[in-house]
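Hi C.,

You asked whether I'd gotten around to modeling the 169-residue construct. I have! Everything is below, sequence then structure, no commentary in between.
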Amino acid sequence: MSNTTQTTYLAGGCFWGMEELVRQIPGVLETEVGYTGGDVPNATYDIVKMGRSGHAESLKIVFDPAKLTYRHLLFEFFRMHNPTTRNQQGNDRGAQYRSAIFYVSDAQHDTAAEVIRTVDASGEWGAKVVTEVTPFKEFWPAEDYHQKYLVKNPRGYTCHLNRHYRLGE
């Protein structure tokens, strides 16, 4: 990617629903679902679904910072999943469904911490954010059938939706 784009990695439950909502945010250029946050190399769905790999179902997001700030992207992230439930989104339970921000720079780390403080202060979720903020290590792309799953299967399962919280923006 050129200097005119940025990349981030987010986890907020099942990656199908997250990808579909993130793809629709103006300024998002590319999305790819996969696995990150664990120590198992060459992660696959069969490994990650067992919940012992340390990986989370995650989303790689490439965006244009001239059209979408990282801060705004994180506020959108906090609207589309419940960041106050540890290792669970909807019916999906396990560490592979945790809420996490995998930062690639000190600036992303600092922005994530500031946004979490703002989300907590808003009181919109009624509980404290448990989202992990951890350094990015490696991303393993998910199998082809997971990519843009809800485009291919419009009636497929998702526990994600855009909530109209203000969240202190």
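If it helps when you're writing up: The longest helix spans residues 106-122.

Thanks,
B.
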